[in-house]
Structures are given as C-alpha cells and as structure tokens.
Design brief:
54% strand; globular; mainly beta; four-stranded antiparallel beta sheet
C-alpha cells in the first residue's frame, strides 16, 4: 500500500503484515497522489510542490523528478504497460511522460477546471479525467487528442475510474451522485456512453 500525506512524504506499507515498511522522502509540500507501477518495481507520486517523482521501490531512491508543471499535481497514473505516466494538475493540464527517458509525450489543456483524477482504460488506448468544471473527458492516447466529453454531473467531478475489464466506468462528484456508465468505444461515431 502506498500513501501520501501533508507531511511531504510517501510511505509504503505491507498489507499481509499490516506494518509500515519505509518512507520515500523528497517532496517539499503535500503529497496528493501516488501509485505503484503494474509490476510493483516503481512508484510515482505528485503533490503541491508541482512535481512528480519516480521512485525505485527496492532501493527507496528517487530516479527522476518531473518538474514541468506550473500547477499543483492532483493525480498521477501509470499506463497499463508501465511505460508511461499521466499527470493531472490544478492548472487544468494533463501531461503524459515516458518513464524510461523522462520526456514529455503528450500535453492536453482541454479541461476548464482542475484535473481531479485520471484513469487508464485497460488497453491503454484511452485516458479518462474528472474535472472541477463538471465534466469527464476521454482522451485517445493513440491519436493524442480529445475523444469525448461527458456532461452528467452538476458540479465538480471528483473521481472517475474504469472497471478492471474496461466495460464500465464510474464517476462521482460534488452533486453527491455516483454514476455508472457502459463503455462502448466507437472511434468512427465519436462517442461511447450509456448511463446506467
């Protein structure tokens, strides 16, 4: 288990033993988000210091600092293959970086509000974001462009995530509503939603 805190650290815990394992230190402000890579060898974290840090879990060392953001980093996500990371910030920006080279791959500014959460479709072909502007946006990562914008919530959308199989996704927001949607990708038609 990976946790971030206002004490500027990331901590790793063992679920089987229910014990603290070690601390990843380096952030200079509140850590808002963190995640292990799919193979568990790496971890990423992002926070109010406007940086994203890539960690080697075995050595507890920081491998790279992504400092290209101008806003606080609210959310970080590994792609399903673990080769890239997506970041979302308070200044409405989503960026995707290559893990191996540290280079910027894609940059999106479609959101009007803060990017609150990110979720990759299991195929890695689509990235979903929830936003303070009340929308959920789907990005086509293969084409590098906005694929679809959903307007279902009244108020900020705080979370959105794909199901493990990718056939559904759920969204939740400040309107106290949780919505479940059926995924129906159709690049030719430019849409894919049915609200449950």
């Amino acid at each position: 288990l990976l946790t971030g805190s206002d004490d500027k650290t990331v901590k790793v815990w063992s679920l089987p033993s229910q014990r603290f394992q070690f601390t990843l230190a380096g952030h200079t402000n509140w850590v808002r988000s963190g995640q292990f890579s799919p193979d568990g060898a790496l971890a990423i974290s992002g926070g109010d210091d406007k940086t994203v840090r890539l960690w080697d879990v075995e050595t507890s060392s920081c491998l790279h600092v992504f400092d290209e953001h101008f806003g606080m980093v609210n959310t970080v996500q590994f792609s399903p293959d673990g080769l890239s990371i997506a970041t979302g910030t308070s200044d409405h920006v989503i960026k995707i970086f290559d893990v191996r080279s540290g280079s910027l791959i894609q940059h999106y500014t479609h959101n009007v509000g803060s990017v609150n959460s990110l979720s990759y479709h299991p195929t890695g072909d689509f990235l979903m974001s929830s936003s303070g502007d009340g929308t959920v946006r789907i990005l086509d990562t293969r084409e590098g462009q906005l694929f679809y914008t959903l307007h279902g919530h009244e108020g900020a959308v705080s979370a959105a995530t794909f199901s493990p199989c990718g056939g559904f996704f759920a969204t939740g927001g400040a309107d106290a509503q949780v919505m479940v949607w059926r995924t129906n990708f159709d690049r030719d038609m430019g849409g894919f939603l049915e609200e449950e």
